[in-house]
């Protein structure tokens, strides 16, 4: 019974959250069982560029350390805020959510070339938390029953807690910076006077992650050529006949 409820809960997870958290757990489990080594997973620009070890661009986001408090703490926050984002502001917008993942990963990798960072999973989690907190500014939060605050302060509370645990402060700062860049480009700049949407999800990505249902009826603006406003020549013949008859009736009444 417990297995079925756990399985149902797992299958009810939104797809991106399920895929990412599963990959993180499997990667950590592989290291724990000595099937893989952290030395094969960490971000190393020299090995990536000179030896073509491109998998490090992905595995650097999947390893949170061996099983312990730090691992479970990060996984809880990753699962919670990744799921709330996907079921909240990204509901029915899986392609846009994947684009946010790609954007955040690319930005962090670019930063990592100039900063000595081995694993970027914690920074990625902070990015997810930051975006969620800015999109839910009025939510009241409670941190271990000690602090009550508004959601936008959550990334900074986690930053302070990370410092108390002895973690490097610039890891969380990078996650906050990348999260703010995404939030500004996606939510702030397009709403400014003269602003426009910079991050546009490619049509191929929408085809892969947001397939249309079989009974979907295309809107007029989605048809090839869009609306036919003012195009008198393309109107159906019955509409033209109706207008002609109306004109004849009006003329008869005026006589």
From TrEMBL:
Domain of life the protein comes from: Eukaryota
Residue stretches spanning the membrane: 60-79, 100-133, 153-185
Bilayer topology annotation: Multi-pass membrane protein
Pfam family, one: DER1
Biased composition (Basic and acidic residues): 241-255
Segments of skewed composition (Low complexity): 231-240
Chief localisation class: endoplasmic reticulum
Keyword Lipid metabolism attributed: no
Subcellular location: Endoplasmic reticulum membrane
GO biological process: ERAD pathway
Region annotation (Disordered) ranges: 220-255
Key word Transmembrane helix present: yes
Keywords: Endoplasmic reticulum, Membrane, Transmembrane, Transmembrane helix
InterPro entries reported for this sequence: DER1, Rhomboid-like_sf
GO cellular component: endoplasmic reticulum membrane
Record function comment: May be involved in the degradation of misfolded endoplasmic reticulum (ER) luminal proteins.
Annotated family: Belongs to the derlin family.
Designated name of the protein: Derlin
Native organism: Phaedon cochleariae
